[in-house]
Design brief:
By secondary structure, this protein is an alpha+beta fold. The chain contains seven helices and twelve strands.
Length: about 270
């Protein structure tokens, strides 16, 4: 998900522009500022609705762990792997879901190889939806995947890490390869950044309840950020919802501690599904 761009500048003040003056009412936002405010509201609504759609699709329980502070180690949602500490589960927004077969799909990865979700049975799968042009939350999730792979040690190659492209304007294999290389995902031997035709991608988004908004090639891509954990039998077992902090300049980041904890949590959940 990209942050709101500051590309829309306020026009020069018109003759009827005014500062707040007693008796004259507040200064009205300029047209450019109103557009920027509307865009910001749209981005927030899409992001929030995306999480709601995923939770409703999977009937994710709204237990105490989902609302707990990341530092609160006393609360745990039922049905989570015992190996995952409550504080990490809370940080991840980790939730169990009804055990059902994950929707099947077939796409191509960053090497142009055909990858079918059904063909990956026998291995746990960690699935996320990513934009190859993203500069905020997707790179952070990518680092968490790299950390998780490292934390898994010798078991790492037995866990498949998948990313599904959400950018309908950049569906070429080369873009998936460039992103994978630039964010060190190529060091994960079981990593696949999947893409395909726009219709094929939209089908996968819809099947997994992922909302995507990108009104033009130059607009920011806004999408649901969700991690699916699929067991070795191809069944959905858990979901988690990545988050980031926002700096004063609008850039996104996550401190090293939470990033490492996310990586550890992903590894622990994946290991429990082998």
């Amino acid at each position: 998900m990209h942050p709101v761009s500051a590309a829309i500048d306020d026009p020069a003040p018109s003759s009827d522009s005014r500062e707040d003056v007693p008796g004259r009412g507040p200064r009205r936002p300029s047209p450019g500022k109103r557009v920027e405010i509307v865009l910001a509201m749209v981005l927030v609504v899409v992001a929030v609705l995306g999480v709601v759609v995923v939770r409703n699709r999977l009937e994710v329980p709204q237990g105490p762990a989902a609302a707990a502070s990341p530092t609160d180690s006393a609360l745990r949602a039922t049905g989570l792997p015992p190996s995952v500490p409550p504080a990490i589960a809370n940080l991840m927004g980790l939730s169990p879901v009804p055990v059902t077969s994950a929707p099947s799909f077939t796409l191509v990865d960053q090497h142009g190889r055909t990858v079918s979700l059904d063909a990956l049975k026998g291995n746990p799968v960690v699935l996320e939806f990513m934009d190859p042009n993203c500069v905020d939350i997707c790179p952070i999730v990518s680092q968490e995947f790299v950390d998780a792979y490292r934390d898994l040690g010798s078991a790492g190659p037995g866990v498949v890490f998948l990313g599904v492209n959400v950018n309908a304007y950049h569906t070429d294999v080369a873009s998936m390869k460039a992103y994978s290389d630039s964010h060190n995902l190529s060091s994960v031997t079981s990593w696949h950044f999947l893409t395909g035709s726009v219709s094929a991608l939209r089908s996968v988004w819809n099947d997994f309840g992922v909302a995507v908004s990108a009104p033009s090639p130059t607009a920011d891509v806004v999408h649901t950020s969700v991690v699916y954990f699929i067991d070795a039998s191809g069944r959905e077992r858990y979901v988690a919802f990545p988050t980031v902090d926002t700096a004063a300049d609008g850039s996104s980041y996550l401190p090293a501690g939470p990033t490492a904890s996310w990586g550890k949590g992903i590894a622990l959940v994946a290991a429990s599904l082998r």
